[in-house]
């Protein structure tokens, strides 16, 4: 809206007690003016405030093995109105085999949010030249597995399968993308041949 103001601030603390272990905690505060419709259907432009916390721990356990644990929390509200909140717990692991040219990356995430306004996004590893940042709201769990096999210096095959299972709904999406189930799976395949 013309004539409105906002504020966005971020504070992050990093800590690495040993070379293999890195962790950080991040707080982000965002305030902007948004339209709000009250109980008698009158529209007002009021401050909308969002707090986000993130804690992440990265650990290189052995050569070729990485672990990442993260916790995300979000709290939103219009000033002097009810709030919504959400939390996401995620664990990922990656391993590069030494005897065969195979790399595996696994991810599991549990999420619980009050509504779409308190949705939480997370980074998820993808195929070559790809990545995804899916958003989650409601209650559920997501699993993802990514495999990369290098047959030679010229040929690499990758595959990713991800499954999101919701506990609070039996229909996912709308229109032509509607799924009459409480889970959604995604499958990606990629073959790269270098000439």
| Number of helices in the DSSP assignment | 0
Outline, from the CA principal axes?
globular
Low-confidence stretches: none
Helix content: under 10%
The averaged pLDDT comes out at 90
Distance from N terminus to C terminus (CA atoms, Å) equals 53 Å
Oligomeric description of these chains? single chain
The tally of beta strands, per DSSP, is 13
How are helices and strands ordered from N to C?
A: EEEEEEEEEEEEE
What composes the largest sheet?
9 strands, antiparallel
* Sequence of strands across the biggest β-sheet: 1-2-3-4-5-6-11-12-13
Radius of gyration: 21 Å
Main structural class: mainly beta
Q: Into which percentage range does the β-strand content fall?
A: over 45%
Task: Note down, in words, how this protein is organized.
The protein is mainly beta and 195 residues long. It has no helices and 13 strands. A 9-stranded antiparallel β-sheet has the order 1-2-3-4-5-6-11-12-13, with no helix packed on it. It has a two-stranded antiparallel ribbon with strand order 7-10. A two-stranded antiparallel sheet has the order 8-9. The radius of gyration is 21 Å and the shape is globular.
């Amino acid at each position: 809206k013309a004539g409105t103001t906002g504020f966005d601030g971020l504070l992050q603390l990093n800590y690495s007690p040993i070379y293999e272990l890195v962790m950080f905690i991040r707080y982000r505060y965002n305030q902007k003016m948004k339209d709000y419709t009250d109980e008698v259907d009158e529209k007002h432009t009021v401050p909308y405030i969002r707090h986000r916390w993130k804690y992440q721990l990265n650990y290189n356990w052995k050569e070729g093995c990485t672990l990442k644990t993260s916790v995300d929390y979000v709290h939103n509200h219009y000033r002097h109105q009810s709030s919504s909140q959400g939390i996401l717990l995620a664990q990922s692991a990656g391993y590069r085999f030494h005897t065969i040219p195979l790399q595996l990356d696994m991810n599991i995430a549990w999420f619980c949010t009050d509504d779409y306004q308190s949705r939480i996004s997370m980074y998820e590893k993808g195929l070559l030249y790809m990545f995804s940042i899916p958003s989650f709201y409601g209650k559920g769990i997501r699993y993802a597995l990514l495999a990369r096999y290098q047959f030679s210096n010229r040929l690499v095959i990758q595959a990713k399968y991800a499954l999101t299972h919701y506990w609070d709904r039996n229909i996912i999406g709308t229109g032509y993308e509607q799924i009459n189930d409480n889970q959604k799976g995604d499958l990606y395949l990629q073959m790269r041949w270098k000439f």
